[in-house]
Amino acid sequence: MSVIPNLVLEQSSLADQVYDNLKLLILSGTLKGGERIPEEQVAQQFGVSRTPIREALKRLAEYGLVSLRPRLNATVTSITKQEAADIGRVRLALEVLAVESIMQDKIGSLVDTLQRLAAECQYCFAVNERAKAFEKDSEFHIALVSCAGNKILTETYERLDARIQLLRITQHLTSEELLPYAAQHIELIRSLREENKDKTRKLLELHIMHDIPS
Questions:
Q1: Are 200 and 187 in contact (CB under 8 A)?
Q2: Residue 214 and residue 209: Cα distance in Å, rounded?
Q3: Which regions in the chain score pLDDT beneath 70?
Q4: pTM for the model
């Protein structure tokens, strides 16, 4: 298991803080797919009992970042090439469905949020804060999907988000290589404002399916 940095946790919500820190370690690539997360070792390194560790791991499993098996250590979820292709296709289908059923009045009210998230995502990649950049990228696409005004579609996409984030990590692209894809967010916003759905669909395919095996 990778060495976990020593972190001082406040007593207010240990499980929440363990969850946040383990999630960051997974999404930054410090804890890698298939790697075991021994409860006892994690508890020692965080300086807490095993109870908040178990609560945090359960939440991470529900989010899709961790796999739990009875009487075995938790492991970070790994993504196979086939799963990567499946995730890409499902993600593209959901976002295209959102674009095709989008409510233009929603775009007007959310455009400022989309632009802010796009700018923050680009900045994080520029300063090599990959985990934060991936988080902002997720927030951007969830906001985009929510513009369709379809609650079930948004909830379905949110459940897929953990695997999307894991897929980003397993692609092993550098922040410099990812910057051009982050810049495509601005093109997506522009095509949405122009109500050019055909162009938006093509941009989404280029944006989502890069480096995903066919």
A1: no
A2: 9
A3: 1-12, 211, 213-214
A4: 0.78
CA distances from 73 to 33, 38, 60, 143 (A): 14, 5, 13, 35
> Among 134, 126, 140, which Cα is nearest to 179's?
126
DSSP notation for 78-91: ---HHHHHHHHHHH
State both tokens at 81. 């090439």
For helices 50-63 and 14-27, the axis angle rounded to 10 degrees is: 50
- Structure confidence at residue 11 (pLDDT): 47
CATH number (1.10.3630.10, 1.10.3110.10, 1.20.120.530, 3.40.50.11540) of 81-208 reads: 1.20.120.530
Is the separation of the CB atoms in 23 and 61 below 8 Å? no
